[in-house]
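Q: Structure tokens for this one, please.
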Amino acid sequence: MLDGIDAVLFDLDGTIVDSMWIWKQIDIDYFSRFDLGFPDQYQREIEGLSFYETAQYTHDHYMPWISVEQLMDDWNKMAYDHYVNDVTPKENIRQFLEHLKRKGCKLGVATSNSKVLCNATLEKNGLRDYFDIILTGDECGAGKPAPDVYLNCAKALDVKPERCLVFEDLCNGIIAGKNAGMTVVTIYDEYSAYQWEDKCSKADHNITSYREITDEVC
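A: Here is the predicted structure, written as tokens:
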């Protein structure tokens, strides 16, 4: 899996940390703040969108009376405490990152989340220093499944896309990595269990836990 690889790029939510559960609760709470029922399809509609794109979509389709900027500010405030206090790393991710560093791989985070929340949880969990770069969809143009965030990550690390390995937990992220010309590994996450077969068919490799890798190489 790592042969011929110079850089390993990770999505954040559901891939580095267990955090996807937070967003469903935040979304439910936010909709209920305005006495709106929570649309069953909402989280699938926004999958892979950048933080700004998600706010824009929500404004356009559900809450036109709230500005995009206010939506982002509200969500950041609602999520911050969770990301600092409740979000934990995926099993064996730290051991895997240490192995990659020993091999001399460059490491990056390519996330649809906000930079504020990404940095907060990586710092809190002692993972920030493993990564050479962190890029968000908002910094790179179109969100996933567009390849922008992964291509920008590779460019910043001075690594050709074909020598990058991507870890993702959602279909749109997998498609983004493939659209960037990279090799993609999908990891199981309970939040997206319903996508597992589809994810496995789209990715080049699949794992249920980083332990599958670390038990072999660490």
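A few notes: The beta strands are 7-10, 17-18, 88-89, 106-111, 133-136, 164-168, 183-187, 205-207. The radius of gyration is 17 Å.
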